[in-house]
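During the second year of the project, the team shifted from modelling isolated chains to modelling whole assemblies. The rationale, set out in the original proposal, was that interfaces cannot be judged from single-chain predictions alone. As a representative example for this report, we include one of the complexes processed in the last quarter. Its constituent sequences, exactly as entered into the pipeline, are reproduced here:
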Amino acid sequence: MKRILFFLFTALTIAGPAHAGIDETINNITAPIASFIGTVVFFKVPIAGANLPLVVLWLVIGAVFFTFYMGFINLRGFKHAIALVRGDYADPNSAGEVSHFQALATAVSGTVGIGNIGGVAVAVTVGGAGATFWLIVAGFLGMSTKFVECTLGVKYRNENPDGSVSGGPMYYLTKGFEERGMVGFGKFMGTFYAIGIFIGALGIGNMFQSNQAYVQLNTVAGGALDGYGWLVGLILAGVVFAVIIGGIKSIARVTEKVVPFMAVFYCVFAIIVILMNFASIPAAIGNIFSGAFTGEGVTGGALGALIIGFQRAVFSNEAGIGSASIAHAAVRTDEPVTEGYVSLLEPFIDTIVICTITALVIGTSQVADPNFAGDATGVAMTSAAFERQISWFPVPLAFGALLFAFSTMISWSYYGLKGWTYLFGEDQTLQTVYKLIFCAFVALGCVVQLGPILDISDALVFLICVPNILGLYFLAPVVKREMQAYVAKLESGEIKKFKH
Amino acid sequence: MENVVLLAVDGSDGSDRALDHAIARAKQGGAKVIVAYVIEWSPYSFNTPEENATRHKRRETEIERANTEIVAPALAKLQGQGLECDGVVRHGHPAETLIEIAKECGAAQILIGRRGHSGLKSLLFGSVAGNLIQTAPVPVVVVP
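Output from the structure prediction step:
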């Protein structure tokens, strides 16, 4: 750490203000590209004054369908999911294998990122308080989508010759369609997804994260890092490089262990801030409900709030994107559907718990002082809300944001790499090429402004969910059969609890 | 109760002394010795996706290594003395897992070597022997 600080300091002195224009130059080049990609993927249909991006509709319809088709598994399966994570059904003979808890924790730490801190602020700024309501609804529906994709992720995973496992949409799309006699289509879909995830990993799991980490660092530094995004970016990219190319696994392992504690720390302090804004709580909750149906002051009214809420929820919990099923696929279980149950908890923790808490921190601050954050949005807005009550909090928040961003970037580098190796094989040189591209985008994320980054990230993310959800519709009957067979075994007592 | 003793090993000097004690004890009473090695592991840890993907293979390697490097030499020594013995390698919380194994094989006694850690170190890292003494359902012999 000392060395990094030293490097930062030296570089700042040497570089001087002459290079401060680098950020601006890069920004000017990338902004038009971003808005072009954004327009193509976000094909919008104007409905009742609001612009409805088709991809958002695509995700919502999917989530609603899976919720009904699986008979409200997001509610019915909740209790069983917790029993599974606690290890109630874990066979002592499989001790030492990847447990349900471990698979969930790994997936959650890839999911809980800057989206939970900064993304919510974006939702509230654009979609008003009512967007929070739809964010929660989207989280609830997303639980069903996760159930389907994670069950498939385990069921159709590959066991490699070296004993490791690879799973995820590219595998279930290929194998699932193959089972139905649609070999060619399955290959096409698998390839489509694999391309989507390795490109998409550069947005949501990369540029957005490094951008917001830089913004928060700069806020804490009182703007001293203005124009030095390229430098912060290079340092961040250097650390990511050290882990994914340099093989310094210890950094990743430490992050992985610290992140859960940071998440708890964040929630505890968020609740403290909400309680400190005690008088504003009823009004803040009132705004969430009324805004959800009236959409006061929001472009497109209630529908506008709904769209924004759903968009940001998916961005945060990744339901329908299929990425988490890559992480969940590593679990050891004889019943793939058990991992589906466990994965239900992911959107719950990510969206229904953490995002809602952030939304309340912002919401209660807004009630007390509508202009508390000035023009700030994203993570800077959340930070300002905390600062109103706890003046020193932006510093640990910057540290937490950095860690969240970092763990998400590490997870996504892995997801992207899995897409890459699906396409190009396990060749080490090619893998390094991808990792280098990934690092370059980490650096780029700190330079480009939030707007264009959101455009690119959103566009890429939704591009991935097109083949994924289409596949999920076809394969949902497989999941339903698995689920029914499993429930029958539970009821007949064939599957027993080991712990009582 | 069967005449079985459970010997907890970890490859340390202390566990070698416990093995000698087990040999003496088994010769006197004609007991069967179960040699157990527990690989410390918790289902509630946080791992990277890569660690999880390769976990299955690593588990097998860990078990194999524990068997060949720690358990097998102890079994060979016991067999060399003409004693009846068996080996177990398992992942888990050391003390809890040893107790589980003791229950499964109906052990009348658990033998374990002392690591000789100072107060601070055992306070930080815990002591398997100390834990066993407090929680085991059968007598525990700690060999110094």
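Residues 450-492 of chain A form the longest helix (43 residues). The two ends of chain A are 46 Å apart (CA to CA).
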